[in-house]
């Protein structure tokens, strides 16, 4: 081989080596969320990239309200779409049937099944397969202002939803606060989460034998409870326009004695930089209903999955495995509780949030699911409109839910 050929061979080898060393870039679609903040996720990602120097992650954050449609739209972009996506517990049926998520059942170590809180797996399961790893294990808790309750002579937070209204009535009559309770009842998925919590408490069902059942029994009691609380002036009327961050803002400013919200609010409401009521925040599992339940909860969890059109599945799974790992989740447990059972006995995880851990131990085993149907999005919109009509006084709870049930019967 002459010198020119040797030079070309060496140059070719150098180019091949450089190409093989070039980092692989993963595209991830995540959420501008409560729970982990954008900065938290960027910090996690930097740690991942440091341990995997051949991998880089490009993250796009969108609002929850845009997340579903963004995932669906990305499937038309072929290999130029996302590799890792954050998805809600209500989407696996739709996404699995349409090929929007890859089946990762065989990627999950068998040992993980028993180590993860049982209810968390329902976040990723459909038709006996798993389409991701649970990541944000969440339900809604009842937060209360300990100082306000003390002023009103109330010794303990409510154990039932009816008792909540009784305590709110005392607070209102004593003029401690004008509207004691605040909710996220805007026409959005947040409204369905609050409604589902109440359906859980009152022993209701969304479907029974394939037929809509939310317009009777516990489903009807849940909506009647909601409308009554507004009519009695106990729930903030602006709740009908609020999302979760609005609820946090109102509660943290000292305008409400009670709020139903996700895990993330506990530490933020107790942060003097974020809240005027820091140090006066109590939290318990959402109440039950007398003679029916002792507490209530809905499954508001989210998971990380591999996009159906990703060509980098192995690398995407490495990133998902890192974010959902117990060490990573324990490190960032102040804004989202881990999916791992033994994390709850870790003193570092419990430190400063023992009350939240106690509430979680009651609530997480009770997480009630929203309907697992392919056309859930349509059902949700139908219910959102119906509930809003009742809250605005345009229809009675019975009439509103009856109309929604007619539509829901075609969506099953």
From TrEMBL:
Keyword Signal: yes
Signal sequence residues: 1-21
Family annotation (Pfam families): SBP_bac_1
Keywords annotated in UniProt: Plasmid, Signal
InterPro entries in the cross-refs: Bact_solute-bd_prot1, SBP
Record protein name field: Putative sugar ABC transporter, periplasmic component
Species assigned in the record: Deinococcus deserti (strain DSM 17065 / CIP 109153 / LMG 22923 / VCD115)
Taxonomic lineage: Bacteria, Thermotogati, Deinococcota, Deinococci, Deinococcales
């Amino acid at each position: 081989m002459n010198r020119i050929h040797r030079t070309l061979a060496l140059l070719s080898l150098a180019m091949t080596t450089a190409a093989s060393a070039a980092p692989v870039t993963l595209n991830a679609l995540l959420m501008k969320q409560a729970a982990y903040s954008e900065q938290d996720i960027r910090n996690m990602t930097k740690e991942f990239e440091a341990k995997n120097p051949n991998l880089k992650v490009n993250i796009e954050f969108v609002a929850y309200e845009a997340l579903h449609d963004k995932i669906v739209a990305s499937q038309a972009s072929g290999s130029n779409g996302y590799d890792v996506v954050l998805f809600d517990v209500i989407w696996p049926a739709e996404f699995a049937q349409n090929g929007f998520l890859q089946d990762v059942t065989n990627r999950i170590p068998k040992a993980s099944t028993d180590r993860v809180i049982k209810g968390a797996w329902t976040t990723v399961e459909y038709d006996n397969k798993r389409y991701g790893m649970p990541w944000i294990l969440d339900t809604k808790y009842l937060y209360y202002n300990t100082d306000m309750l003390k002023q009103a002579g109330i010794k303990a937070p409510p154990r039932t939803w009816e008792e909540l209204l009784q305590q709110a009535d005392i607070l209102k009559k004593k003029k401690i606060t004008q509207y004691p309770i605040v909710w996220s009842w805007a026409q959005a998925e947040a409204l369905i989460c609050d409604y589902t919590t109440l359906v859980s408490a009152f022993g209701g069902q969304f479907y029974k034998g394939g037929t809509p059942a939310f317009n009777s029994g516990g489903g009807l009691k849940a909506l009647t409870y909601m409308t009554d609380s507004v009519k009695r002036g106990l729930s903030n009327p602006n709740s009908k326009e609020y999302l979760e961050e609005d609820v946090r803002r109102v509660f943290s400013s000292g305008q409400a004695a009670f709020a139903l919200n996700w895990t993330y609010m506990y530490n933020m409401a107790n942060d003097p930089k974020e809240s005027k009521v820091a140090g006066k925040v109590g939290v318990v599992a959402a109440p039950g209903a007398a003679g029916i339940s002792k507490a209530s909860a809905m499954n508001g969890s989210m998971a990380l999955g591999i996009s159906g059109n990703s060509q980098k599945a192995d690398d995407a799974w490495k990133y998902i495995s890192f974010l959902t790992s117990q060490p990573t989740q324990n490190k960032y447990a102040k804004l989202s509780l881990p999916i791992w059972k033994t994390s709850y006995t870790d003193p570092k995880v419990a430190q400063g949030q023992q009350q939240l851990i106690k509430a979680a131990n009651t609530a997480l085993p009770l997480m009630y699911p929203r309907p697992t149907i392919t056309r859930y999005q349509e059902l949700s919109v139908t219910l959102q409109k119906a509930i809003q009509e009742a809250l605005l006084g345009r229809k009675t709870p019975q009439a509103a839910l009856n109309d929604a049930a007619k539509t829901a019967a075609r969506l099953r």
